[in-house]
Amino acid sequence: MSETPDTYVRERATEGRKDLRYPEAPEPLAVPVYDNHCHLEIADGDVGLSLTEQLDRAEAVGIAGVVQASGDIESSRWAVDAAESDPRVLAAVAIHPNDAPAYADAGRLDEALAVIDGLAARPRTRAIGETGLDYFRTEEPGRAAQHASFEAHIALAKKHGIAMQIHDRDAHDDVLETLGRVGAPERTVFHCFSGDEAMARVCADAGYYLSFAGNVTFKNAQNLRDALAVTPRERILVETDAPFLTPVPLRGRPNAPYLIPITLRFLAAELGVDVDELAAQIAANTLEVYGSFA
Ligand SMILES: [Zn+2]
Ligand SMILES: [Zn+2]
């Protein structure tokens, strides 16, 4: 066991926040689920919550654990420390597609990938993530580095036999093309799925997992609800991407894993299925992808 990382590695101005107070906890879930993608190393809220406070609040409403995602060397180390200090955390480690160009420009991408390789070997690291392509934030000429980094991360997930969490922003075709060309890891997750119904069908056929975040509740996100409707139940995951993407009706407030019940209940209502039944299915899917937390 390592020491609980109670400091934030990334202090970030909370974008789009109208009210910095953490919202009231929702009604607890009867059947526990997991938050399969969050960033608890980033500070949020008027009074920041420690890792333990985040996990305790989550557990109190039926969130049994979280997968802590990463984007650079520092946050990847933080994720592994968190996972090794608390049984409610598993780690995902990676260089984020928007960070890859800076590492490459500094001539440090190979060195960074070697660090990720080492962290991926740790027993509580169960995914490479987040990796992928982001054409919204990264323009040419940074995309060559982004592509090279994505392919290197795919190779690492395969080498270590762990899952992969994909970040895909405005790059659907090229992400799918890359996975098809080099071969996807056995368990590939589209974190914060952002495609439409047609893409969801392609992903389902390929056996990829679709992880839905709080933005599925946004008014303008009908594409996500259409995608959800055609996703096989055994391929659905749920996440917060906290501190980002706070679900309706709490937009403008901090996001945290303890708010997962809001998104889960929304998914169940959209699908017209029982909340407990969907929770049991999604929890089983999560363990299938990442393995046991205990
Ligand atoms: Zn992402
Ligand atoms: Zn993320």
Provide structural commentary:
The structure is a single chain. The protein is built from 10 helices and 8 strands. It has an 8-stranded parallel beta sheet with strand order 1-2-3-4-5-6-7-8. Helix 2 packs parallel to helix 4, helix 4 runs parallel beside helix 5 (143-160) and helix 7 packs parallel to helix 8 (222-230). Helices cover 40% and strands 15% of the residues. It has 294 residues and is an alpha/beta fold. The two termini are 13 Å apart. One zinc ion (ZN) is lined by residues 130, 167, 191-192.
The main sheet orders its strands as: 1-2-3-4-5-6-7-8
Q: What's the helical proportion of residues?
A: 25-40%
What percent strand? 5-15%
Q: Could you tell me the number of beta strands?
A: 8
Ligands bound, unique: zinc ion
Radius of gyration: 18 Å
- What string gives the helices and strands in order? EHEHEHHEHEHEHEHEHH
Averaged pLDDT: 95
If classified by CATH, what would the architecture be? Answer: Alpha-Beta Barrel
Low-confidence parts lasting 5 or more residues at pLDDT below 50? none
Multimerization state: single chain
Features:
294 residues; alpha/beta; eight-stranded parallel β-sheet; binds zinc ion
Q: How would you concisely characterize the structure shown here?
A:
The protein is 40% helix and 15% strand. The protein is of the alpha/beta class and 294 residues long.
Topology, pairings included?
Layout: E1 33-38, H1 51-60, E2 63-68, H2 73-85, E3 89-93, H3 100-105, H4 109-120, E4 125-134, H5 143-160, E5 163-169, H6 172-182, E6 188-190, H7 197-206, E7 209-212, H8 222-230, E8 236-238, H9 260-271, H10 275-290
Parallel strand pairs: 1-2, 2-3, 3-4, 4-5, 5-6, 6-7, 7-8
Helix pairs in contact: 2-4, 4-5, 7-8
